[in-house]
Design brief:
Blueprint lengths: L11 H11 L6 E3 L11 H10 L1 E5 L5 H13 L5 E5 L9 E5 L16 H13 L5 E4 L10 H17 L4 E5 L7 H21 L2 E3 L1 H6 E4 L4 E4 L1 E4 L2 E4 L15 H19 L19 E2 L6 E2 L3 E7 L3 E9 L4 E10 L2 E7 L12 E9 L2 E9 L2
Parallel strand pairs: 1-7, 2-4, 2-5, 3-4, 5-6, 6-7, 13-19
Antiparallel strand pairs: 8-9, 10-11, 12-14, 14-17, 15-16, 15-18, 18-19
Length: 379
């Protein structure tokens, strides 16, 4: 289990700025069964999610699968700490804070989020009254068994309208579950496809609930298996038999946990994480006598002191990086004699501009050595 760094809530503008620049809008972001391996996400990105993202989540009973999954993941590993409050936004440090429902209800039908003027106003109230919220999502129940193409288009239009009104909030589109068969299951599949096509064509963020329902990872074969049935000359995804149950939210705990993992993957991506990115190395290699001491203080507001020891004369570089691996400031780039040294970082960049709160890395490198220390800047 990682050691948690104390964080303070970031002021609204900086939170919004961090999220706005984190996700690249030139492509869609599809969260499906391939986005469930939490071992790929480093602890620093979980920290970043908990520090910088605030989630508004409205749903009915099927949508409760996500919150149950998040709770069970947290119970197994407190690294994934979540704080969820009905009808309000918690302010718990070191947690993904979730506003559950709307201000006046917790069981949220389409009419109470996007389907009516009153529902749209309820969503606006949550976002206007809680300006640190920067992610909002609503979950289907079983509506798509009977919804028409036009009704789904109304859903897409409403979410798009909210995106225009709240440019600093990322709205998550969702597909419906895959529990139905026969004609109703086929209609649900068509409407899910309609949502997927829209998100792919318009560079939206999609949490593909229906996909997560139909795929199960077989630990014996180490392969993913999808459950389907045939209808009207089409192969239609349906809930995997391993998820057939009623432990909670009309399914099994295993299904909930799979969806909870996908939520963490999605939030990490929104925070700026990429599965293909190379994390800043920590203590990758060291030579005897070259030491980067723990930074003091590790959580700071005005400045932190960086001390290090060189066993011989060396060309030394001491650089600050942000959590995406981008260089922020070079503190030292010079030939230094053997012995003890120290540098001060005052929370500014190379242009001496004040930078926002967040997790940063101080990396010392030189002749065959490299060490990194993590710090938390709070404003």
């Amino acid at each position: 289990m990682k050691n948690k760094i104390s964080k303070l809530s970031i002021v609204s503008f900086l939170v919004m700025f961090a999220v706005t620049v984190a996700y690249s809008w030139d492509t869609s972001l599809i969260i499906d069964h391939t986005c469930t391996d939490l071992s790929q996400i480093s602890a620093e990105w979980i920290d970043s999610v908990q520090a910088n993202l605030r989630l508004h989540y409205a749903h009915t009973s099927h949508g409760g699968q996500l919150t149950t999954g998040l709770s069970r993941i947290e119970t197994a590993d407190a690294t994934y700490n979540v704080s969820r409050t009905s009808r309000s936004l918690p302010t718990t440090a070191d947690a993904l804070c979730i506003f559950d429902g709307q201000e006046n209800d917790t069981y949220i039908t389409p009419e109470e989020y996007w389907g009516t003027t009153a529902g749209m106003n309820d969503t606006r109230d949550v976002l206007n009254n809680n300006p640190t919220i920067n992610v909002s999502m609503w979950s289907w129940c079983c509506q798509l068994t009977s919804y028409s193409e036009a009704e789904v288009e109304a859903y897409l239009d409403s979410i798009t309208s909210l995106e225009t009104e709240f440019p600093n909030v990322i709205f998550i589109y969702m597909t419906c579950n895959s529990q139905a068969t026969s004609g109703s299951g086929y209609n649900r599949y068509l409407r899910n496809q309609q949502i997927r096509q829209y998100c792919n064509s318009n560079n939206k963020v999609l949490f593909d609930f229906g996909d997560l329902d139909s795929w199960w990872f077989n630990p014996d074969s180490s392969k993913w298996e999808q459950n389907t049935y045939e209808y009207s000359d089409s192969t239609v995804p349906v809930e995997h038999s391993h998820f057939n149950g009623s432990q909670t939210g009309h399914t099994t705990y295993e299904s909930c946990e799979q969806k909870g993992k996908a939520v963490w993957w999605m939030m990490a991506k929104l925070a700026g994480w990429s599965p293909d990115s190379v994390a800043i190395a920590e203590d990758t290699y060291k030579s005897q006598g070259f030491i980067l001491y723990p930074v003091s203080p590790t959580t700071f507001n005005t400045f932190t002191n960086v001390k290090y020891k060189l066993s011989e004369n060396s060309q030394v570089s001491l650089v600050v990086y942000d959590i995406t691996g981008k260089k922020v400031k070079t503190l030292i780039d010079a030939e230094l004699p053997a012995g003890n040294h120290s540098s001060i970082w005052d929370g500014t960049d190379d242009q001496n501009s004040v930078i926002p709160s967040g997790i940063y890395f101080l990396q010392l490198s030189g002749n065959n050595f490299l060490q990194t220390r993590k710090v938390n800047l709070v404003r």
